[in-house]
Amino acid sequence: MRIWGKVLGVFFGFMFGGPFGALLGLWLGHRFDKAVGGNFAFSAANSQAAQQAFLFSTFAVLGHIAKSKGVVTQQEIQVANFLMDQMRLQGEARRQAQDAFRQGKDADFPLEEQISQFVRAVNGRRDLLQMFMEIQLQGVFADGVIDDSEHALLKRVAKALGFSEPELQAMISRWEAELKFHRHGGGQRQSAQSSAKQLEEAYQILGVSQQDSDQQIKRAYRKLMTQHHPDKLVAKGLPPEMMELAKQRTQDIQQAYELVKQQRKSAS
C-alpha cells in the first residue's frame, strides 16, 4: 500500500492552507498513490508478458530455422536442450519451450507474424532484439556453419526485428569470432600463433579494428557491456532464466577487451 503521496499531501496542504488545505492534500495524495500503484501493476504485467513472449519466440524461431534444411540435426536439438539447461527450465516451463520448438518446425509457422508480436511485447527495445538475434545465431552455429537456407531465414528474422543486412553480417562475424575465441582458449596464454588468432578474434568480438584508437575501443567495449548487462536486460523484459546467457556474453566481451588492452600495453 502506498501512503507517501497522502502523507506529503497532508503535510504541505496544512502548511499552506490549514485544515482545509490538509484535506485537499490528502485527496490529491490519494490520487497520486493510486496512479503510481496502477502504473506499477501495468509495468509488472507488461514485463511478465514480454518475458513469456521472449521465451516462446526464442524456441519457436530456433525450431523454424533448424527445420529450414529439411531435417533437424542432432546438434541443433542438443543446442536447444543446452539452452534450456542453461536457463534451468524444468517441468511445465521446459515442456512449453519444447512445444514452442516443435511449433516452429511446422511448415506453415507464421515467422514474421510471431516476430512482430514479440517486438510489440518488448516495446521494440533494441538490446532485447539484439539478444534474441544472438541466441538464434548460437542455434544456427550448432554444426559450425551457416548454409544458404539458414542464412535466408536469418535475413528474414533480422528484417522482421528491424536489423539491416550489414547489421546482421556484423553480428554473424562477432559470433563466429566468439566461437573461435573459445576454441583458442578464451584469452588464456597460448602459443604465438594461437595468441595472434585470439587477438584478431578479440577485435572482431568488440567490433573494432587494430587501427582504431584506445578511446574508440573503450567506447565500443562499454557500449557492448551496456547492451548485454544481465540486470538491465531482465528489467526490460529478458526472462530471468536467460540471465546466464547474458552473463556469458559479458564475460566474453570482458575477456576480449582485456586481451586487447594487454597487447596494446605491451606493444607501447
UniProtKB/TrEMBL annotation:
It is a single-pass type III membrane protein. It is found in: Cell inner membrane. Its main location: membrane. Residues 31-268 are cytoplasmic. Residues 1-6 are periplasmic. Residues 201-265 form the J domain. Signal peptide: none annotated. Coiled coil: none annotated. Keywords: Cell inner membrane, Cell membrane, Chaperone, Membrane, Transmembrane, Transmembrane helix. The chain crosses the membrane at residues 7-29. The transmembrane domain is a dimerization domain. NCBIfam families: PRK09430.1. This is Co-chaperone protein DjlA.
